[in-house]
């Protein structure tokens, strides 16, 4: 077995990388606060004929769960590395099935395990759940933002029309010999060009909205069926997770910075919130070679 007294080690990538090096690994998907494991009891559990790694994890959680305020912050998992292959096989299928959703996920909707700007540690189950819903939320967001852009562009168009009418009215009261005539005529041509550009912009935005609305309508027509399929997939994922996670525990909140509403016991990289350099290295990891998360 291996025990990590280090922050953010509790990811599926680490566990899978170590599957042929140890039978069990204990670690935390979040940060580990300063005390780390409960070293007052750790040796009692480990330096014996039959080491009790789960008891070490239970004591770790208990010492933080009994605290108050921001000190009441902990996540811990004990994983049977020998049973990770079943999880990997299922994830390979799920990553391919929800490939489009994985690219469209709003990271704000996924259970985070990071603090500050270390935005690469998200809950594995939460990633799959949100990938199955991401397309709807993506197009709903696009719909709202496009409508806002249309309202703004339409208001600007109305202002241009009003300004043009004022210029035309003033210009009609002048003759070519008047001092302001040439300047007003130039302004007129300038605003007419702007008007044409704005009319084209509004037309394009309305065309975009039509496409977005059609796609959203198509998604919603099959939404109940999609959610039924997703529920089954998530249920299957939980069974595979339960098969390889011996023990897991998490406090309801972490460092008063975020709630822990979903805790599968393992974190994972979220490609849509990563970056090209991280993707390049991630492709070399055993987990990615097996599952194809990052193509």
What would you say this structure looks like, in words?
Helix content is 57%, strand content 9%. The relative contact order is 0.17. It has eleven helices and eight strands. The protein is elongated. The strands form three sheets. A four-stranded mixed beta sheet has the order 1-2-3-5. The longest helix has 41 residues, at 181-221. It has helices at residues 12-17, 42-46, 53-65, 84-97, 99-104, 124-131, 134-172, 181-221, 223-244, 276-282, 286-291, and strands at residues 2-3, 24-27, 75-80, 122-123, 245-250, 253-254, 258-259, 267-268. By secondary structure, it is an alpha+beta fold. Helix 4 packs antiparallel against helix 9 and helix 7 (134-172) runs antiparallel to helix 8 (181-221).
- Rg, rounded, reads 29 Å
| Helix-strand makeup class | alpha+beta
**Residue windows where pLDDT falls under 50 for at least 5 positions:** none
Q: What's the order of the H and E elements?
A: EHEHHEHHEHHHHEEEEHH
Residue fraction in strands: 5-15%
| Major β-sheet annotation | 4 strands, mixed
Which of globular, elongated, flat, extended, rod-shaped describes the shape?
A: elongated
* Overall mean confidence score, pLDDT: 96
* Lateral strand order in the biggest sheet: 1-2-3-5
The end-to-end span amounts to 32 Å
Can you give the helix content as a percent range? 55-70%
- Number-wise, the strands total 8
Helical stretch tally: 11
């Amino acid at each position: 077995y291996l025990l990590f007294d280090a922050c953010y080690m509790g990811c599926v990538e680490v566990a899978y990388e170590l599957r042929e090096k140890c039978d069990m690994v204990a670690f935390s998907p979040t940060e580990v606060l300063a005390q780390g494991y409960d070293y007052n009891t750790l040796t009692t559990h480990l330096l014996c004929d039959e080491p009790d790694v789960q008891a070490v994890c239970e004591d770790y959680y208990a010492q933080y769960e009994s605290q108050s305020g921001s000190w009441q912050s902990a996540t811990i998992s004990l994983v049977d590395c020998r049973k990770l292959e079943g999880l990997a096989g299922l994830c390979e299928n799920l990553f391919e099935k929800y490939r489009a959703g994985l690219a469209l996920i709003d990271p704000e909707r996924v259970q985070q395990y990071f603090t500050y700007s270390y935005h690469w540690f998200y809950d594995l189950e939460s990633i799959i759940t949100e990938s199955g819903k991401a397309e709807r939320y993506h197009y709903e967001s696009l719909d709202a933002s496009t409508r806002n852009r249309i309202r703004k562009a339409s208001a600007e168009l109305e202002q241009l029309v009003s300004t043009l009418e004022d210029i035309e009215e003033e210009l009609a009261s002048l003759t070519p010999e008047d001092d302001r005539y040439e300047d007003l005529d130039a302004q007129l041509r300038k605003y007419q060009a702007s008007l044409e550009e704005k009319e084209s912009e509004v037309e394009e935005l309305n065309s975009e909205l039509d496409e977005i609305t059609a796609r959203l309508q198509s998604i919603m027509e099959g939404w109940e069926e999609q959610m039924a399929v997703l529920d089954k997939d998530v249920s299957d994922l939980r069974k595979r997770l339960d098969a390889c996670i011996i023990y897991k525990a998490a406090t309801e909140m972490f460092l008063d910075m975020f709630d822990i509403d979903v805790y599968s016991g393992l974190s994972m990289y979220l490609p849509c919130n990563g970056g090209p350099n991280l993707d390049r290295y991630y492709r070399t990891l055993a987990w990615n070679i097996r599952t194809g998360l990052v193509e």
